[in-house]
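User: Quick sanity check before I run a bigger batch. Here is a single chain. Can you write out its predicted 3D structure?
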Amino acid sequence: YTCCPSPPTPPLPPGGSRYPLARGMSDSPQREWMQRVVETSAAAAECCLPTQTQLLQTFATATELRASPWADYFEHVYGIRTMVFPFSLGEIAFFYWDRLPLTAKASLKLREQQPGGERWSYMVIEGPALRFGELYGHGFAWGRVRHSALRPSEWRSHGNVWRCLHPWCSGPGRYVPEVFARLAISEGLPSHTRAEVFHACCDSHDWPQGTAWFFLAPGSGVFLDLRRTVVLRTHADLATRFGFSCWGSVLDETCHSWCERECYVETVEALRTEGYDTIQFTNYDAEHYADYEVWDLRVGSADWQNDGCLPDYPRGTLTRGWAGTGEECRCRRGGDLLR
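Assistant: Done. Predicted structure follows.
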């Protein structure tokens, strides 16, 4: 990481980090893992961390949270009575823009974006590379977007607020093998745990029907049961790990749409036969970002999606409440996002 000064900053205290966090909480596998993700990514990028960090307040008790401007937000997302304290906003990597407290919205400084993906029209961060802890709006959109000028309703299609969880989420440093191997994010979540996810319409138009794509989104309040999962770094590992040679043509875009779909179908059928339910891509390079994707291979709906909901999805797969231990999700119809 070339931004490190010379001499480097002093080492961290044993077991410590300069990034605020409510430590020692192990009420769910995801929360315990996320604390290690934050600590290892922050340590790897310590000398490169932004000078100003946002949305890091810690709440010691439910009473303290209820007395804060964040009460309505977390009552909506989790239900405060279900939460385990202490709790830090630093554990959250995804925030719903239209639910944020007005005081938080007013003070947010998000990295501006412009279109940069020819194929998917991804929005690309302008200026220096996106670093651990920085906040950005992430989504699919057409045309130049300055998020500060968007009306709240427009954020539904242009993206919500995300926090970078890798040491670098854009630029040439978003994957450095010897560094990435030491990060907790490279381990992924174990089988038979629940992961908080984000989903947007519409997978069924493009991929084999019955599968769904998600982004890891701690803070969404929507939990996906991973069941038996396999952890890969990126889509290319489907070729190196499982021998699906067609992925070479898919990734270098020499494969036409019929060939691409055939490759996806072959992959899904083979991995289902081997007993896998989900795949985690911990460092998928989504053209310009280091994203964390989850591909659910289970048989869901055979119908096209018309909104962010996943019709006829296997019962019990998506749940809500703190750590996903609440009742089954009931998706709000209409709009592009799974809410």
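The radius of gyration is 20 Å.

User: Great, the batch can go ahead then.
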